Automatic annotation (TrEMBL):
<dbReference type="Pfam" id="PF00106">
    <property type="entry name" value="adh_short"/>
</dbReference>
<dbReference type="GO" id="GO:0016491">
    <property type="term" value="F:oxidoreductase activity"/>
</dbReference>
<dbReference type="Pfam" id="PF13561">
    <property type="entry name" value="adh_short_C2"/>
</dbReference>
<dbReference type="InterPro" id="IPR036291">
    <property type="entry name" value="NAD(P)-bd_dom_sf"/>
</dbReference>
<protein>
    <submittedName>
        <fullName>Uncharacterized protein</fullName>
    </submittedName>
</protein>
<dbReference type="InterPro" id="IPR020904">
    <property type="entry name" value="Sc_DH/Rdtase_CS"/>
</dbReference>
<dbReference type="InterPro" id="IPR002347">
    <property type="entry name" value="SDR_fam"/>
</dbReference>
<comment type="similarity">
    <text>Belongs to the short-chain dehydrogenases/reductases (SDR) family.</text>
</comment>
<keyword id="KW-0560">Oxidoreductase</keyword>
Length: 263
């Protein structure tokens, strides 16, 4: 059974998609959450849903931030701790996709932006949170991607004929995105060893998830991934650390997607 009652959780990228579903689920399980995103109106809606679902009617800490800026990463942590004074769970969900192919104009500037949000911000936030998480024997869940495990060329071949799939996922499987998520997987493993035995660190690697980017195909719902994140963050998964947990509707074996691409 997943028990997050009165746990304090910082969930980045929680204004939409997987992060939104995770924040609402954590709240429904009794957690106190801090939610982070770039869109204030979306954050306000998520905050209202969290409070409505909370058995204790907890109001989330709402933080508008853009992790392209290091100072926003630091401010996110400081605002969370200033309210809650402690931290049990860090969910590093914030991430950016890319629209630049290798060798295209401004590709390197785009690469730097992807690395800043998808890798550096996670490293910085983990560094800031580590001492607090050690005190609570807490958990970190990094939201990675199957793009860390399969090259961009293979992903494009598998998906290029899938008319029902929005092209945004093809963009998100670009070379720079794949590299950033592979880095995140290795960071997960390194931190699992570094922070043991006090803090568990795991990664969830979704495939295509039904968000505003992808509709009308048989893939995971955000809540499916949120349930896995909640389980990994809870004591139910107390024996797991350093794991790269794939939840991809069979994407890596191609079959569920090949049928769609051949239509």
């Amino acid at each position: 059974m997943i028990d997050l009652d009165n746990k304090v959780a910082l969930i980045t990228g929680s204004s939409d998609g997987i992060g939104k579903a995770t924040a609402i689920l954590f709240s429904s399980l009794g957690a106190k959450v801090a939610i982070v995103g770039r869109d204030q109106s979306k954050l306000d809606k998520v905050a209202a849903a969290c409070e409505a679902k909370s058995p204790h009617h907890y109001k989330p800490v709402v933080i508008k931030a853009d992790f392209v800026r290091d100072e926003d990463v630091v401010r996110t942590f400081e605002e969370t701790i200033s309210v809650y004074k402690t931290l049990d769970i860090l969910v590093n969900n914030c991430g950016l996709s890319s629209k630049k192919g290798f060798g295209e104009p401004d590709a390197m500037a785009d690469y730097d932006r992807i690395q800043q949000v998808n890798v550096r911000a996670v490293v910085r936030l983990t560094e800031l949170a580590a001492a607090h998480l050690k005190e609570t024997n807490g958990a970190i869940v990094n939201v990675s991607s199957v793009a860390s495990l399969k090259s961009v060329s293979s992903n494009k071949i598998a998906l290029k004929k899938t008319k029902s799939l929005n092209s945004a996922f093809v963009f998100s499987a670009s070379w720079s995105y794949c590299m950033s998520k592979a880095s995140l997987d290795m960071f997960t493993k390194c931190m699992a060893g570094k922070l043991a035995p006090h803090v568990r660190v795991n990664s969830v690697n979704p495939g295509v998830t039904r968000t505003s980017f992808a509709r009308h195909i048989p893939v995971a719902e955000p809540l499916d991934i949120a349930n896995l994140i909640a389980w990994l963050a809870s004591d139910a998964a107390r024996n797991m650390t350093g794991s790269i947990v794939v939840s991809d509707s069979g994407f890596l074996c191609d079959d569920p997607y090949r049928a769609l691409s051949e239509k």
